[in-house]
Design a protein that fits this description.
Elements lengths: L37 E4 L6 H9 L13 H4 L4 H5 L3 E4 L5 H4 L5 E4 L4 H14 L6 H4 L4 H6 L1 H7 L2 H7 L2 H6 L1
Parallel strand pairs: 1-2, 1-3
Amino acid sequence: MPTVSRSSPSEVAPPTPVRGAAPQPPACGPVLEPGTTLYFLHIPKTAGTSYRTYLEDHFDADVICPHLVVEELLPRPRAELDGYRLISGHHGWFLPGMLRAEPTLVTVLRDPVARSLSHFYHQRNTPGDWLHEIVRDWTFEQYVTSPIGMSELANCLVRHRALDRVQEDYW
């Protein structure tokens, strides 16, 4: 697959046809202006890990930020962050304020009911999840009507996109 690197042109070349292969759709990878950073704001349970992997296949490894959670990202110096062309993670809307140039932002949204079901089943079935011991024997109805479930699910898509409180707490 074509890649985008710090010094390469921003064009993505179409794939080379393979004899006997099915026709390929046009290339739809990220096309960025030189020096632009792509910020993938990952909202949990929206196929974000799959999309992040897809994006990483289109960038050279040395320009991909390895810090996927905000606790790892916050202590990084601004000069380091400015060197990345792809930043992915649960970093919220405050990330653009950490960079010298405005990044191109992409995210994946999911039907809220389907995302809520996925979130619940993840917490119920994943022993390492912080709520697993509490919700492992619950039904979805018990979860969504409990204070815990309501706080986990209430306006989740907006809260993950905003996450602007973190900047005030750490910067």
